[in-house]
Specification:
The complex is a heterodimer of chains A (326) and B (298).
Chain A: H1 3-16, H2 18-41, H3 45-70, H4 77-95, H5 99-118, H6 126-146, H7 148-151, E1 157-158, H8 169-193, H9 195-205, H10 207-212, H11 217-243, E2 245-246, H12 253-265, H13 272-288, H14 295-313, H15 319-325
Antiparallel strand pairs in A: 1-2
Helix pairs in contact in A: 1-2, 2-8, 3-8, 3-11, 3-12, 3-13, 4-5, 4-6, 4-11, 5-11, 6-12, 8-11, 9-11, 12-13, 12-14
Chain B: H1 3-38, H2 45-61, H3 69-91, H4 99-121, E1 136-139, E2 142-145, H5 146-168, H6 170-180, H7 182-187, H8 192-214, H9 224-238, H10 244-264, H11 270-284, H12 291-294
Antiparallel strand pairs in B: 1-2
Helix pairs in contact in B: 1-5, 1-8, 1-9, 1-10, 2-3, 2-4, 2-8, 2-9, 3-8, 5-6, 6-8, 9-10, 9-11
The chains are: A mainly alpha (326), B mainly alpha (298).
């Protein structure tokens, strides 16, 4: 893809879709409205699971963002999610402050951690980063358990403080998560059209051209990872807030892989419906298949393989004549 | 700490580091072979090795069958090779198209294998020993056991075998050619698929051997072997990820470093230590620690 095409792509896409844009927008509005009105009808467990879905959808978005803009795979985003969740819990335990203070702090910590982590592999191909994220995911449980003094060890910590006093806990969790998800989706669609977003896309599609314009590949790599980690940390803060508790049980090695599963299942898209699909897939499947626990990784694995193959194989016939030719 | 005490500690630490490092190296060799030929990081490596180790356990302990250890290993090798072929067949359509997508697909294979192991063998912790006669003797300050000798013998045999195959056989020449320039190989009419398949099979065998040899030092469960593979990944990164000697030497370095760290600092933060090793290596030696010492060849 040429650079000009890249820039044109957005413009042409917008104008070509102009007719459909309203329909697409309307359906997203309808979705948001339906979700906003849902608490009038449903209650209890459904609202709780949905608020977790929203939080996980944010985490899925952070992984998808990394794939889309950076072309990199991370199986260690659970680290940044945990960072956000524990930031909220620890701020409440030590300082007695609510998520109003700890949420920005979580985002900041996530960005710093993401930068520190991505910096060493800035000049290398994406597979090195993937290997490093594997180490990150495996190191997470022992860090959480090892720093017992802060993290509460195996038992974890509770998050009890409300954001807005006077509103029921269930409603707060639900609406705060929903509002954040919608805001992040809007911000992401804005980012796609912004100069920074285009610069990152160009650095991935045409590294040389981008370099000629002063956008180095390593800068693009580090900055997209930093953004993605900040978003993951935000998602973690929401996960902690929505479930009122953080413990090492929810941050095993596999939680990082599952985030990637959610991202792949949503085809790495950055739209609200896609994020919801990904978030729901990784939240609801384990909940409803709790009795068949061991089937969950199998199901996720199959989903990962099938979706990856279907999305990448494209025209399978191209693969066949090649063998016949030999 | 006195100097004498230090020396008394350090020699056994170095020795056991070398022994476990050999196994990390063997595990890393499998990863590097797959990566060199097909440019895919095989994240199912550890899960496949774990499955193989459990198959050996299941067939030799009586939980499924009670065969002899040797025939159980033969069966496990067969199963591991079959799974390797199937997993390569799964990613075959996309392997030339996208390294990243193929890598994600290997994660899927890993998840399926992980779930399969948990379904069949449960989440229990079991012991799986090597059937070697038990003896040990002292060599200065170092205590050498039969297990150590078995590990050394197997590692040397494997590295030598691999070296002979890669340096002396036609398949090895094809493997080297493909890892240098796949496009030119295709132009010359070389079948890339068969070379890929060779490296995937070799990777499965190496992973299984490493797992069988490492399990006696700890225990076997559905999570230990996959996380043991982090050591193999670290060894591969330290060796530069596309150098076979680098992987072997990297394994030994990682083994020694881990032993020193767990003795002098803390045994509870091993994975964090490995993460640090990976990040530092990537930052300061992006092409591996041995880049200058041996160059890029094989």
């Amino acid at each position: 893809m040429a650079v000009s095409e890249l820039a044109h792509g957005t413009k042409a896409g917008v104008s070509a879709r102009n007719g459909n844009v309203d329909a697409a927008r309307l359906s997203i509005f309808a979705l948001v409205a339906a979700l906003a009105l849902l608490p009038l009808l449903a209650g209890g467990f459904l609202l709780y699971s949905l608020s977790l879905c929203f939080a996980n959808a944010l985490a899925v978005l952070s992984v998808s963002m990394l794939v889309r803009y950076g072309g990199e795979v991370s199986i260690g985003h659970s680290f940044f999610v945990a960072l956000g969740a524990y930031a909220v819990a620890i701020v409440e335990h030590r300082l007695g402050l609510s998520i109003a203070v700890s949420l920005p702090l979580a985002v900041l910590l996530g960005a710093i951690a993401g930068f520190v982590f991505a910096f060493p592999s800035r000049r290398l191909s994406g597979i090195y980063l993937a290997v490093a994220t594997m180490a990150l995911a495996l190191a997470l449980p022992e860090i959480l358990i090892g720093f017992e003094k802060f993290t509460g060890g195996f038992e974890g910590l509770y998050i009890a403080q409300d954001l807005i006093p006077g509103i029921s806990k269930a409603l707060q969790r639900y609406y705060v998560a929903l509002v954040l998800l919608v805001v992040v989706c809007l911000a992401l669609s804005h980012f796609r059209k912004s100069a920074q977003g285009l610069a990152l896309l160009m650095a991935q599609a045409q590294p040389r051209a981008a370099e000629a314009m002063g956008i180095t590949r390593s800068w693009a790599r580090v900055s997209i990872f930093t953004l993605s980690a900040a978003l993951a940390s935000l998602a973690g803060a929401m996960t902690g807030f929505a479930s009122s508790t953080v413990s090492p049980n929810s941050f095993t090695f596999f939680s990082g892989v599952f985030l990637l599963v959610g991202s792949v299942v949503s085809l790495n898209r950055l739209s609200l419906p896609a994020a919801l699909v990904g978030g729901a897939f990784i939240t609801l499947v384990p909940t409803y298949l709790a009795k068949a626990g061991d089937w969950v990784p199998i199901l996720y694995g199959v989903a990962l393989i099938v979706v990856t193959l279907a999305a990448n194989a494209g025209d399978l016939r191209r693969f066949l004549p090649r063998r016949r030719g030999r | 700490m006195s100097v004498a005490g230090f020396i008394r500690d350090i020699l056994p630490l170095l020795w056991s580091g070398i022994i476990s490092g050999c196994l990390y190296g063997v595990g890393a060799l499998g990863l590097v072979m797959v990566f060199k030929s097909s440019r895919v990081v095989n994240f199912s490596h550890g899960n496949l090795a774990c499955l193989g180790a459990f198959v050996v356990y299941g067939f030799s302990s009586g939980s499924l069958l009670s065969l002899s250890w040797g025939s159980a290993v033969a069966l496990a090798l067969g199963i591991a090779c079959a799974v390797a072929v199937v997993s390569y067949a799964l990613i075959a359509p996309i392997v030339f198209k996208s390294d990243l997508a193929s890598t994600i697909a290997t994660l899927g294979v890993g998840l399926v294998l992980q779930g399969g192991v948990q379904l069949v063998f449960g989440a229990d912790i079991v012991n799986l020993d090597l059937p070697v006669p038990r003896f040990s003797f002292s060599l200065g300050a170092v205590r050498v056991s039969s297990y150590d000798l078995a590990v050394l013998a197997v590692t040397i045999a494997i590295v030598a075998g691999l070296f002979v195959i890669i340096e002396r056989t036609k398949l090895g020449v094809a493997f080297r050619a493909v890892s240098t320039n796949p496009f030119a190989c295709e132009v010359c009419g070389l079948n890339l698929r068969s070379v890929h398949l060779f490296s995937w099979l070799a990777g499965a065998v190496l992973g299984l051997v490493a797992a069988l040899l490492i399990v006696p030092t700890t225990f076997l469960s559905s999570t230990t072997v996959p996380s043991f593979m982090l050591q193999a990944f670290t060894a591969a990164v330290v060796g530069g990820f596309s150098s076979l000697p680098g992987a072997a030497v990297g394994g030994i370095l990682v083994g020694i470093a881990m032993n020193l760290f767990s003795f002098y600092v803390s045994p509870e933060f091993m994975n964090t230590f490995l993460l640090g090793v990976i990040l530092l290596t990537l930052n300061f030696f992006p092409n591996g620690l041995l880049e200058r010492a041996i160059g890029g060849r094989v």
